[in-house]
């Protein structure tokens, strides 16, 4: 039985992938770039500064402009995993944690809108670690704070990076692949 359940945010708990995709596309277009949806997903989703750098941008400056725009659109984002499911896990004495490559500032508007802040004992955002998934840093940090054991911890995520991060941390993994994510990821590749 799993006592500690760690979740990814974008594309897992929250249906945010369209927001990110639209904003990446809008930022790239004036600079003469028109990558396909799959290229944006591959080059930018969960890659930190590597995506903007690949297109000749300074990653820090790129995200300094992009993040405030995304933050404003995240408030009422739809949840892929209903709050009732998360509440049910708590009622069954599970610890919940969130490990996301997104900045805390893009997560919190939706957290507050959906009143999720009391469900998660720990939130480790991408701007609070030095390495992104598939590196296990976020998972290890969350487990340390929660005093969780590897044998009773699982991560639920929607990408290969989430699954590999779990494996790299020595915990069980679960791929969450809602229908809405099929245009962003290839199930066979995952």
UniProtKB/TrEMBL annotation:
GO cellular component: a single term: cytosol
One MF annotation (Gene Ontology) recorded for this entry: phosphoglycolate phosphatase activity
SUPFAM superfamilies reported in the protein's UniProt record: HAD-like
Any one of the GO BP annotations: DNA repair
Domain of life: Bacteria
A Pfam family annotated for this UniProt entry: HAD_2
Entry protein name: Phosphoglycolate phosphatase
The organism of origin for this protein: candidate division WS6 bacterium GW2011_GWA2_37_6
């Amino acid at each position: 039985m799993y006592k500690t359940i760690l979740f990814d945010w974008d594309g897992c708990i929250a249906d945010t992938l369209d927001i990110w995709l639209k904003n990446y596309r809008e930022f790239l277009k004036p600079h003469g770039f028109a990558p396909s949806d799959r290229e944006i997903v591959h080059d930018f989703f969960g890659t930190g500064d590597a995506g903007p750098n690949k297109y000749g941008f300074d990653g820090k400056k790129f995200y300094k402009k992009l993040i405030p725009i995304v933050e404003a659109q995240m408030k009422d984002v739809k949840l892929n995993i209903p709050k009732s499911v998360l509440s049910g896990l708590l009622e069954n004495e599970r610890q919940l944690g969130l490990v996301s490559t997104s900045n805390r500032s893009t997560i919190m508007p939706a957290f507050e809108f959906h009143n999720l802040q009391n469900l998660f004992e720990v939130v480790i955002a991408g701007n609070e670690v030095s390495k992104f998934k598939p590196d296990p840093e976020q998972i290890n940090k969350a487990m340390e704070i929660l005093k969780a054991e590897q044998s009773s911890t699982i991560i639920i995520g929607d990408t290969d990076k989430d699954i590999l991060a779990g494996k790299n941390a020595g915990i069980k993994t679960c791929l969450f692949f809602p229908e809405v994510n099929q245009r962003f990821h290839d199930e066979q590749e995952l």
